[in-house]
Specification:
- Helix 8 packs antiparallel against helix 13.
- The protein is globular and about 65 Å long.
- The protein contains 14 helices and no strands.
- By secondary structure, the protein is an all-alpha fold.
- About 75% of the residues lie in helices and about 0% in strands.
- It has a single domain, classed as Orthogonal Bundle (ABC transporter involved in vitamin B12 uptake, BtuC).
């Protein structure tokens, strides 16, 4: 069997291995916490389905929703980062770096603060905020030459400005339905399945469409001139992909808060594993993002047990040095190598 990198058999092997790792991560996430639950206890409790059982309540109402949230958020943010890096031709692009997270966060906070009866629609609000932010950043960057660094600097500026508005809203509305610190850092504690159902539909829809358009994304990643020469409507498809990236990141932020660096780290690791073909890169990024987020969430639970820290702190510890590494690498002219 041919297992050379980028062959179909190699890609299938990588995806199968990641699926196995994800299943192991899901089991560990359900098993490990303030109290450890063995596999036999998990199976026994779920078979009985007894609400009077403490183990069943912990698994069904705490561990499973939290695990599902980590899988969804990691999958969505990683796929969003992979899309942004491809269509903007910028390896430094990610939802938190170029302001997408900030825009989604602002609209989520506004809905929670001023329309508390409509919290069910925070996913839609987060998507709109993410889309407006990424379009604003891209339009500013185009006016200044659309270079890689212009996009990053525009994103930092827009993110800072939007973040100030978000802080102002949370300060003026301290009784908002969103807990300030948990939202700004990002985490999964207290999440319920009901809260995840609507964002999950958005994430699944955006992922399916992005996978379906993977070949067009490959063409767009060649650059505007090359894509136009191959007959691709660059403006239309770039807008479609930005909508999909905003839908993915906005949906995740609506329930997980402003998680950072998932969409930056994971696509790079995925490219190292399987190359640049977006038809394979997107599913690998989604799987690896879920695994990475589950791992970070587990570390957040056990590193300082019995105390728990927000998972966003763990991601920032890992993501900050990685971003510096990419900047240094970019200075050497190897930004996409």
């Amino acid at each position: 069997m041919n297992l050379n990198k980028n062959s179909k058999s190699y890609n299938a092997t990588v995806i199968a291995f990641l699926v196995i790792l994800l299943l192991i991560g899901v089991f560990m996430s359900i098993s490990i916490g303030s109290s450890r639950i063995s596999l036999s206890e998990i199976i026994s409790a779920m078979k009985q389905g007894d609400n009077a059982s403490k183990t069943y309540r912990i698994i069904n109402f705490v561990r499973i929703p939290r695990t599902f949230a980590a899988v969804l958020a990691g999958c969505a943010l990683s796929a969003s980062g992979a899309i942004l890096q491809s269509v903007l031709n910028n390896s430094l692009a990610s939802p938190n770096i170029i302001g997408v997270n900030s825009g989604a966060g602002l609209f989520t906070v506004l809905v929670a603060a001023y329309f508390s009866a409509s919290l069910y629609y925070t996913t839609i609000a987060a998507f709109i905020g993410a889309l407006l932010a990424v379009l604003l950043v891209y339009s500013i960057a185009r006016r200044t030459g659309a270079s890689r660094m212009a996009i990053v600097l525009s994103g930092v500026a827009v993110s800072s400005f939007i973040g100030a508005i978000t802080d102002t809203v949370l300060t003026l509305k301290p009784d908002t339905a969103i807990e300030r610190i948990a939202f700004l850092i990002g985490g999964f504690s207290g999440i319920t399945i009901d809260r995840l159902s609507f964002p999950a539909c958005f994430i699944l829809f955006a992922l399916v469409i992005a996978l379906f358009l993977g070949y067009d994304m490959n063409i767009l990643a060649l650059g505007d001139e090359s894509a136009k020469s191959l007959g691709l409507n660059v403006a239309r498809f770039r807008f479609i992909f930005l909508i999909l990236a905003a839908m993915l990141s906005g949906s995740a932020i609506s329930f997980a808060g402003l998680l950072g660096f998932v969409g930056l780290i994971v696509p790079h690791v995925s490219r190292f594993l399987i190359g640049y073909d977006n038809r394979v890169l997107l599913p690998v990024s989604a799987l690896l993002g879920s695994i990475f987020t589950l791992l970070c969430d587990l570390l957040a639970r056990v590193l300082f047990a019995p105390f728990e820290i927000p998972v966003g702190i763990i991601m920032s510890f890992l993501g900050g040095p990685f971003f510096i590494y990419l900047l240094i690498k970019g200075r050497r002219g190897q930004l996409y190598d």
